Recover the amino acids of this structure.
């Protein structure tokens, strides 16, 4: 009885744009100057609205906010690789990709400020609401991917989650089922190294998160998550694969959370000194800017115009968010069911009598 | 005490030629087949629901009729069954998910509580989950461990999920049809102990029994027995025996636990002045406590005696050889009735 090898696998890593802004021409996607500047603009807008949210929170004008600083490349690269009708199923640190997929920023602000209307997106925006419980959204992505497969619709479900969420049972179940059914889905891990205070090596004993894909029978790839071009290329390939009906893909985007877990967290309690500074040197936005400048596609005056545009847009969205009239008290009842049952009518009237007395 | 102790169960008046005599299990399957025929968005998914036809044969024949794209054997993953159903339901399908036994629902509870029950509310109606989760529940079939539980109380403390329990074949088909057509998630609890206990004429055509309406399974003037699912049979048996002591028990079959038909409960209690609530789940914080509280809040002065509960004990559900000690029996119900009558 021989001892044989029944399965072997290799996990690839993709990098295209390095820290100095140099690109690997062989791997460079066919993006024209406008598209490259578009990716840069996307990331600058994200950085601006994220910074603004932190300021609003400190001023008491925003609730608990999970910052996305440092993770802009993952979000821009994925968003720009998605097609018009693709679904986005976010976790809770995906404001950037959500905004690029059409969720109005003022609604994103409203949600994190504590207003459910922030998860009621305009008609045609194919996006699930934020998923806070950690890892549960992987299952919805598998389900939407199955839905798209069964309906034959030309669309793909793109689901996000963090490194910590890969330890949840739902991650395993969802990817297993997605592969078994060959659903039209792409799963993107934003591996930002830290699940609040727990570092990746305490989250998993595997060398990468991407390699877990092998256990489910789907392709997995690791990308430099601070390299917007690598993210874009890997996601585009994965989406094309799913669209063709060849099944789901797992993408691990290795990035770093430059900020705290949320505004309620103090990351200096658990992160080693110097780590944040080291990652600031790999900033995804600066990296693409260096490339654009080196290629003669960007200069100081364009930067000034963009910063002005970003500022104006963010301020207009803050204004729209802060001008939302407060929800009526009965709103906590009115969307519980399609039709309000008698006991909820009764409880709603109790509340209204109390608040109007 | 009333002399008129007959009562008797009101039969569903349907012409015989258009009906089949079905068991509850067959009526469940009939409802699914009818709705799958009527609406191509309706899917069935779960463990062993396809080729095997379900461990209780409730999905027998569906895969042959509707194919593996609509009758989906899933991996052994309760959280995925519900989580994927949420994704399917939010994007246009109408999944009927089966959890093979209610005792195995725990891995799916996060998906049910944190997502299915909340999606409509948290998106202010933008996304919704028109999904049915079928779950055989309850004891009395002498199975292995974890196959006998009745966990309705935890779902009733979770706003956003309707909870429905039929006690007979006619209601099984009508309630399940209503559940499949319902725009919100419905937990459909199937009393597996009486899956095949008896047959009743069930109309061939589709029909609904409205969710949120209780039924008077037997009329009486002396005491209200309030129950659902398999316990309705126990109460009907008890009522029959009680006629020998000249006691006319009314049996209220709730059929829907959320929403609860409080009006029917209160009307019955107003008539009889006495109530006994009967359920299989543990007594403490069981739904009987809620019903007793609501009767207390709304009908205290009409009561001749405190509301009594006949329920499972606050113990782990016993293995097969001891389950008769746990499950509410006809005798235990009769004893409770005698206590409220002699209060």
């Amino acid at each position: 009885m021989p001892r044989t090898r029944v399965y072997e696998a290799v996990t690839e890593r993709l990098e295209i744009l390095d820290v100095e802004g140099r690109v690997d021409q062989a791997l460079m996607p066919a993006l024209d100057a406008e598209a490259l500047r578009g990716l840069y603009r996307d990331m600058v807008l994200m950085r601006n609205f994220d910074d603004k949210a932190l300021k609003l929170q400190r001023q008491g004008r925003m609730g608990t906010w999970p910052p996305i600083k440092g993770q802009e490349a993952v979000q821009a690269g994925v968003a720009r690789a998605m097609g018009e009708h693709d679904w986005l199923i976010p976790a809770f640190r995906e404001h950037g990709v959500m905004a690029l997929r059409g969720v109005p920023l003022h609604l994103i602000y409203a949600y994190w400020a504590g207003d459910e209307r922030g998860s009621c997106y305009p008609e045609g925006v194919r996006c699930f609401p934020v998923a806070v419980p950690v890892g549960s959204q992987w299952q919805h992505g598998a389900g939407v991917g199955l839905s798209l497969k069964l309906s034959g619709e030309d669309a793909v479900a793109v689901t996000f989650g963090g490194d910590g969420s890969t330890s949840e049972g739902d991650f395993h179940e969802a990817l297993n089922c997605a592969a078994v059914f060959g659903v039209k889905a792409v799963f993107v891990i934003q591996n930002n190294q830290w699940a609040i205070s727990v570092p990746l090596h305490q989250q998993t004993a595997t060398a990468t998160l991407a390699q877990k894909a092998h256990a489910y029978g789907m392709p997995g790839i690791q990308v430099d998550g601070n390299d917007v071009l690598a993210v874009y290329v890997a996601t585009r390939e994965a989406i094309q694969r799913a669209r063709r009906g060849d099944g789901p893909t797992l993408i691990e985007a290795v990035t770093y959370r430059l900020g705290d877990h949320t505004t309620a967290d103090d990351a200096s309690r658990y992160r080693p000194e110097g780590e944040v500074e080291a990652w600031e040197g790999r900033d995804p936005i600066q990296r693409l800017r260096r490339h654009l400048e080196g290629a003669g596609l960007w200069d100081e005056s364009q930067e000034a115009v963009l910063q002005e545009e970003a500022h104006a847009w963010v301020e207009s969205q803050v204004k729209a968010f802060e001008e939302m009239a407060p929800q009526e008290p009965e709103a906590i009842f009115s969307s519980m069911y399609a039709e309000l049952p008698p006991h909820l009518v009764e409880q709603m009237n109790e509340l209204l009598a109390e608040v109007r007395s | 005490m009333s002399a008129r102790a007959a009562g008797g169960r009101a039969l569903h008046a349907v012409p015989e030629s258009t009906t089949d005599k079905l068991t509850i299990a067959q009526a469940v399957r009939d409802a699914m087949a009818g709705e799958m025929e009527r609406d191509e968005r309706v899917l069935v998914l779960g463990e062993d629901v396809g080729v095997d036809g379900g461990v209780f044969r409730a999905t027998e024949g569906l895969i042959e009729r509707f194919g593996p794209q609509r009758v989906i054997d899933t991996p052994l993953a309760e959280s995925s069954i519900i989580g994927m159903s949420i994704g399917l339901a939010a994007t246009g399908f109408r999944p009927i998910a089966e959890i093979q036994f209610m005792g195995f629902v725990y891995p799916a509870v996060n998906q049910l509580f944190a997502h299915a029950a909340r999606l409509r509310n948290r998106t202010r109606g933008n996304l919704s989950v028109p999904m049915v989760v079928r779950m055989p529940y309850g004891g009395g079939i002498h199975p292995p461990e974890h196959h006998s539980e009745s966990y309705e109380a935890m779902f009733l403390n979770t706003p956003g999920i309707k909870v429905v329990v039929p006690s007979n074949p006619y209601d099984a088909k009508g309630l399940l049809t209503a559940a499949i057509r319902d725009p919100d998630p419905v937990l459909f609890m199937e009393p597996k102990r009486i899956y095949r206990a008896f047959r009743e004429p069930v109309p061939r055509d589709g029909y609904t029994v409205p969710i949120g309406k209780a039924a008077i399974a037997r009329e009486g003037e002396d005491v209200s027995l309030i129950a659902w699912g398999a316990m309705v049979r126990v109460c009907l048996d008890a009522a029959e025996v009680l006629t020998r002591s000249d006691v006319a028990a009314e049996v209220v079959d709730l059929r829907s636990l959320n929403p609860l038909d409080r009006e029917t409960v209160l009307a019955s209690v107003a008539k009889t002045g006495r109530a006994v609530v009967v359920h299989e789940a543990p007594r403490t914080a069981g739904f009987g406590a809620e019903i007793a509280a609501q009767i207390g809040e709304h009908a205290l002065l009409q009561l001749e005696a405190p509301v009594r509960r006949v329920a499972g004990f606050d113990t782990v559900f016993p293995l097969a050889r001891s389950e008769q000690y746990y499950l509410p029996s006809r005798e235990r119900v009769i004893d409770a009735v005698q206590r409220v009558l002699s209060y």
